[in-house]
Amino acid sequence: MKHIARKRFGQHFLNDGLIITSIVDGINPQRSDPMVEIGPGLAALTNPLLACLDRLSVIELDRDLAAKLRTNPGLDVIESDVLRVDFTDLALKLGVPKLRVVGNLPYNISTPILFHLLDHVNAVTDQHFMLQKEVVERMVAKPSTSAYGRLSVMLQWRYEMENFLFVPPHSFVPPPRVDSAVVRMVPKVDSAPVRLKEFSEMVQVAFSQRRKVLRHTLGAWLAHRGYTGDFDLRQRAEQVSVQSYLDLHFSLPAA
């Protein structure tokens, strides 16, 4: 029976052979790699990956698709919402120090998934994700551009990232209304050890009203934390580099 894409799961199934080959080549899977795929769907990417691997773990929320995937003896199927999956614990269960994570992420929850994985970055070797092109552009954006924002700062602090493949709508069934792209994310080995909750809150406050200068947004937040430094609050949030946000964070008194 043909599977009908379910809107509530944000399902768009990749079916472009050339694009699939390009993604697999970009991932470059090695036989013993401990790899986890998010949202395998109809296994368009799953099968060519598995052909290169000893085993592959997949996370699928749709029970019908999960049942079909279980018929493949090479797959370890985790039927779950990916936001409930503890990737650090999964690495321990698989007996490996780190995972390689790949997937065509549901566009309606792609940002929550990225932030969820940020909590488990120490258990990840690299990540390759298909996302809405606009989201990938925000992830890799430079300061003083319209795409630069909270997502840019939070991910660039922790990952080296590359937008390496454009994917048009006609590569999917049903075709989405947006262009897509594939991003490579490699955790930085020398990233600054921030107080994550505080750093995330600071960046969120800074970008809460991006048209205003930071005096009107971040100023009160800094004053509440006893900051007396000389950070220039006449800037807008998008003008501040990732490193400057980090420097500001480390200059704050510890809560």
User: Briefly, what CATH class of the largest domain?
Assistant: Alpha Beta
Strand % is 15-25%
Please give the largest β-sheet.
7 strands, mixed
Q: What is the total number of structural domains?
A: 2
Distance between the termini: 57 Å
Estimated structural class: alpha/beta
Order of helices and strands: EHEHEHEHEHEHHEEEHHH
Task: Please name the CATH topology of the largest domain.
Answer: Rossmann fold
The dominant shape is elongated
**DSSP summary, beta strand count:** 9
The residue-averaged pLDDT reads 93
The value of Rg in angstroms is 20 Å
* Helical content (DSSP H or I, runs of 4+): 25-40%
Poorly predicted ranges (pLDDT <50, ≥5 residues)?
Answer: 1-10
CATH level 4 superfamily of the largest domain: Vaccinia Virus protein VP39
Number of helices: 10
Strand order of the largest sheet: 4-3-2-5-6-9-7
CATH architecture of the largest domain: 3-Layer(aba) Sandwich
Summarize the structure.
By secondary structure, the protein is of the alpha/beta class.
Describe this structure in words.
By secondary structure, the chain is of the alpha/beta class. The chain folds into two domains: 7-187, Rossmann fold (3-Layer(aba) Sandwich), CATH 3.40.50; 196-251, rRNA adenine dimethylase, C-terminal domain (Helicase, Ruva Protein, domain 3, Orthogonal Bundle), CATH 1.10.8. 33% of the residues lie in helices and 20% in strands. It is built from ten helices and nine strands. It has helices at residues 17-27, 46-50, 63-69, 87-94, 110-118, 133-140, 150-158, 196-206, 218-224, 242-251; strands spanning 13-14, 35-38, 56-60, 75-79, 99-104, 124-132, 159-167, 172-173, 180-187. Strand 5 (99-104), helix 5 and strand 6 form a beta-alpha-beta unit. The N and C termini lie far apart (57 Å). Residues 1-10 have low confidence and may be disordered.
